[in-house]
Structure prediction request, 419 residues.
Amino acid sequence: MSLYHSPLYKDALAQLEMASEAMGADPNIIERLKYPKRAIQVSIPIRLDDGTVKTFEGFRVQHNMTLGPGKGGIRFHPHVDLSETTALAMLMTFKCALVGLPLGGAKGGIRVDPSQLSRQELQALTRRYATEIGPFVGPDKDIPAPDIGTDSQTMAWFMDTYSQINGYAAHGVVTGKPISVGGSLGRTAATGRGVAYCINFAYDRMDKAIDKNTTVAIHGFGKVGCPAAEDLADQGAKIVAVSDVSGAVYAEDGLPVPKLVEWIKNGNLLNQYPGLKQISNEELLALDVDILIPAAIDGVITSKNMETVKARLIAEGANGPLTKDAIDYLTKKNVFIIPDILCNAGGVIVSYFEWVQGLANFFWDEDEVNRRLHSILKKAFDDVMKKHTHYKVDMKKAAMIAALAKLEAAMKLRGLFPG
Ligand code: NAD
Prediction:
């Protein structure tokens, strides 16, 4: 299977090429950015609880490390493959550049359905994966973080494995760790909080404010979707629908967000939540709401269902939830789209804070984390709006141009090795 076959990779490449054309980027720089620096595939054999041995496929892709060590999540999902991981690593390169972090783009994952493994099996899987990719990661090389199907416990196992092998407590090897082993306050909620900040920046631009009449639907009520719902509900918005892989729940007058978050945290699925109207994920995406947050997986709004979307603002909480066709179509319909590399950058920004705090062994309080997060995202949002106006391009291309401009400058200064 080719490194470049996935729709997500083809979309990322198309975005890169169109942004480059719009801004007149150096073709030599674009040529380099089409390919990852390094793509690693590993086999991960583990002994299952029943005594049999099963082997899983794992990946780590480092797309570009001009600006600093690689940074990107680790995904445990049955659809993970090398091409999707490459596309996500590429998006990380642009995300880090866009928000001005001294980090490059990377991503990793294992092709597995984590819900089918016991805690012990998941620990074995994580530790063996960490061992296999161990030579290529580290605080100065590449720093993984949680993504779909992984969490702070996964990061603690990863950090412990790397530390056991290297003989010292290496806090800086991963971010998204539990607080007691070097995590940062505010990291768990950072991506969703960043989504809420970006929605507020967009509303400010439109001279609007979030209030009790603002309706919100969230596709994917996980690590990104839950805190985004909590923040927007705290501001008074009506969260009318949220979904997970099992389906969606709906309430015209607003859902009981804290109770639903608690339900999910206890490991339950939304289709088992009692007393609420159940709708399908497709119906959620087509709701007539002010704000739609696709925060589950990539490719959920495509040429097949884009005409059903009625939301006025779409905040891409997930990576690549809208295909290129859908972005073109909805932009023409005057839907305000906050692109993924900006909208969900809160996670990598606070991951960067976690890495910095770990290196300095000095930890900040949560207000400081949130203040700095807000300030970095605001600067990036304004930068994207400037590019949007200057180049007369959609928000997705504008974000890519803002990122590319920074990357291009750094890549030219560093030059091509060995020359
Ligand atoms: P998660 O596993 O915590 O949550 C994902 C949610 O989506 C769950 O509710 C799950 O049930 C649901 N889901 C999965 N497949 C679905 C499907 N086919 N249809 C409907 N719902 C489905 O994952 P997460 O960390 O919240 O990540 C969500 C997205 O955000 C991913 O695209 C991820 O790459 C991106 N992202 C996450 C972070 C982070 O800090 N966690 C940062 C940046 C981007």
